[in-house]
Each structure stands twice: as C-alpha cells, then as structure tokens.
Amino acid sequence: MTLPIDPNALPETSNPPDDAQRLAAVQDNLHEVQTLLAQQKRVESLVQRQDMPRQALIENMVHKQHLSALRDKLANMSPANVARILEALPQDESLQVWDLVAPDRGMEILDELSEAVRETLAATHVPRRKPIMLNAFELHNGRLRQIPVESRAELAATQPIWVDVIAPSTEERAWVKEIFDLKLPDTDDISDLEESARFYIADSGEVHLHSDFLLDKADESRNVPVAFVLHQNILFSVRDEELPVFRLQRLRARIQPGYVSDGKDVLLDLYAADVEYSADALEDVYAELEAVGRKVLSTNVTDAEAASILADIAKEEDLNGRIRRNVLDTRRALSFLIRGRLLAPNQHEDARQILRDIESLDGHTAFIFNKINFLMDAVVGFININQNKIIKIFSVASVALLPPTLIASIYGMNFKHMPELDWSYGYLYSIALMVISVGVPFAVFRKKGWLR
After folding, report:
1. How far apart are CA 100 and CA 230, in angstroms?
2. DSSP 347-405
3. Confidence class of residue 163 from pLDDT cuts 50, 70 and 90?
4. Rounded Cα–Cα distance for residues 291 and 278 (Å)
5. C-beta separation of 233 from 263 below 8 A
6. Half-sphere exposure of 439 (CA within 13 A, CB side)
7. What are phi and psi of 138, to 5 degrees?
8. Residue 55 and residue 92: Cα distance in Å, rounded?
9. How far is C-alpha 377 from the chain's CA centre?
10. Of 385, 371, 383, whose CA–CA distance to 293 is shortest?
11. In the chain, % of residues over pLDDT 70
12. Beta strand pairing status for 162-166 and 134-140?
C-alpha cells in the first residue's frame, strides 16, 4: 500500500511540471522504502518460526542485511525527499527510518519536516549509543575465537573462557547477570587504593582484581582502571575504553595455538603484556630524554628553549610516574594471586617471571627519575645563568655611568665663583669629559671579558 504524499509539502517552485516529476520521484522512493520494510518483516517472521542452530545469529544477520539495504537507499535521497517519506509512513516505521538517517543528516532532515512530525521525531530521538562492545572468547583448536555479542541469545549460546566488556550498558550487565549469575563491578568504584578493596575473594567464591593498565598516546598518557572477575572458570574484564594491551592479547591468542587454556592464563598474559607495554613506553621515555639531554648540554640555551625543554621533561616525568604506578599495581595483583594459591604450578611460575620483569623495570624507572632531576636542575641552572647575565649587564652599565654622573653633578653646582662659567668652551669640555669617562670603563670591562 502506498500512502498519499501531500503535494503542498514539496519545496516551492515556479515550474509545475517539475513539481509533478518531484512528486512522482518521492512516490517511487516511498514505495521502495515500504517494500524493503515489508520484506524485512516477512523474512524475520519466517526465520523466527524456524527451529535451527544459531537462530539468534541468523536473525541478526538478516536484520543487518535489510537495514544495510535500506540505509543505502536513504543515503541516495535528498533531505527533502526523506522528510516527505517520514511524514507519509506510519509512526513505528517512521521512527525506524529516522533512526537510520538521524546520526548523519538529522538536522538537515528536521529542517524539511512539518512542525508536528519534527517535534515527534526530535523528542523520540536520542544520540545513538556507541556500538555494543561485548566480546566472548571461546577455545577452538587451542586458539581463542572471538565472538562479538550484540544480543542476549548470542551471549547465552557461547561457552567462553573470557568475556570482555567495554563500557557496559544496563542491558549488557543484565545479560551477564542472568546467564552467568554474576554482577559486573562498576568502573567508577574500582579506583580505591586500599589493597583489600582492589583484590579480594567474594563470599560466593568470585575472585575480584581491580588493576590499572597504561594507555600511552602521542598527546596524553594515563592509567585506565580495569576490573577482573574470575567466576566459574571464566575471566570477566570490564573497562571504559579499548586498550592496546587487550588488542595485543587477542591477536596473540588467535594466532598461536595453545597460548592460553583457561581464564587465568588469559589474566596472566594480560598482565605480562601490560608489563611489556610499560617496558616499551620506558624505552620511548629514554629516547625522549636523550634528545632533551642533547639540547640541555648544548653550548647555549635561551630562555624560550629552556621553557620548551622543561615542558618536555615534565611530560616524560609524568609518563615515567604512570609507568611506575602501573607496574607496582600489577605486582600487587600477582602477589595476591600467588598468596591466595589461586594458580596452577605452571601459572605460578609464569607469575614469578612477570614479577622478575617488574623488578627490572623498577630499576629503570628509578634511574629515569634521577636523570629527570639532573636535567631539571641543569635547565634551571641555565635559566639562572641567563638571568645573571642580564643582571651583570645592568651592573656594568650602572658602574660605567657613575663618572659622567659625577661630572654632571659637579658642573651642575650653582657656586658664584666657578672658573668654567666664563669659559667659551666649557660646555663642550664637560660633554667630552663625560664621554671619555664612559668609554674608558667600558674598554676596561671588555678587555677583562665582563661584558660577555
């Protein structure tokens, strides 16, 4: 069924034949959109009536396929044509179409809509949430297999050893609670420093670890809190953003067979990768400080260069501090796992090796702190030298100007009997005397090197 379109809603023009053509084009577009919506409903209804393996996955694929076709169709339409279609469709279908076009062209289309429809769509539309970022990882032929999860049914159909969640919504938290009988921790509550609040075993037997992971970008570096829960031999990880360490772990586990065998292996490998990532960041700090050191130890450092160098040193000091905090937090987590006898013998040895790596990093971070303090002192010393040079110039100038000041003071006296008062060349004589009294001190100071 084709719904009527109000010709008066079309953009005004002085050419009636063009209006007719535009109306026909909108009618054709509306018919195509309705056909795609009807096909989607029919196919999804058919799939739902079938009893087949991975039914939820198939439903999701079918849904995405039709949405993609509809989105491509809408992308080729002008905002005015899309607005006419939204006004002609029933409200439920109009909202479905609006959800597809609003993120990219919402404001343009709203401007073309009638007031009543504009208010309805603007009131119901909320900024689209970021794509669901919940991944389950199963063991398949000794390798991790990543399964993106976008529905409860997909999560329930998995047999994971690791469930990784980024910024979980209330709905995703409910899925985990219903399927695994586990309440995921809130990332806002995992920044406590007390060890008893960061590493503990719950009454139900779940092992909770709240750790910091380093995120080092070109423009900033920070520690991102991550919550781990070991429950029913499954590792659950919760954080607010993606981290390079997790990407590296997923890549290694997918490529190398036998790399992990259970959730604890995944946890230890994440900690090991974090220590490795911290070591790489330390190497970058070394390289940056070497470059800064060459600037500091150059023959001349201006105040502007000193300010830039201080900013670079402060940045590296901040990163070094974050690395130190990060590895110390990892050490606390591994010590908790070892003390709690929560690891198998081979995992216990892996944890010991990670602790040895952390010990080596401790020495490096301490050395870098000392180097940073040396460079800071050197830069501050150069700033003081530059300031002393300025003060020295003022001191030399004030000393050099004392003799002409004395001469001017003498000839500025108002005594009645002064021999030079009646002398025709007295003025020129005093001026020449002052110039000579300035030049002689400057010549002496220059010869002694006091002006450099």
Report:
1. 39
2. HHHHHHHHHHHHHHHHHHHHHHHHHHHHHHHHHHHHHHHHHHHHHHHHHHHHHHTHHHH
3. very high
4. 20
5. yes
6. 6
7. -110, 155
8. 25
9. 32
10. 371
11. 78
12. antiparallel
Return the amino acid letter for 310. Answer: L
Distance of CA 27 to the CA centre of its chain: 46
User: Which tokens is 365 given?
Assistant: 């971070």
CA 164-169-174 angle, 5° bins: 85
Residue 188 has pLDDT above 50, yes or no: yes
Query: Is residue 161 a contact partner of residue 235, using CB atoms and an 8 Å limit?
Result: yes
Q: pTM, whole model, 2 decimals?
A: 0.59
Torsion, Cα 66 134 233 346, to 10 degrees, reads 110
| Homologous superfamily in CATH for domain 134-384 | CorA soluble domain-like (3.30.460.20)
Helix (H) or strand (E) holding 237: strand 234-239
Give me Rg for the CA atoms of the chain: 38
CA-CA-CA-CA dihedral for 38, 39, 44, 46, to nearest 10:
110
Q: How far apart are the C-alpha atoms of 301 and 307, rounded to whole Å?
A: 10
| Collapsed DSSP state (helix, strand, coil) of residue 158 | coil
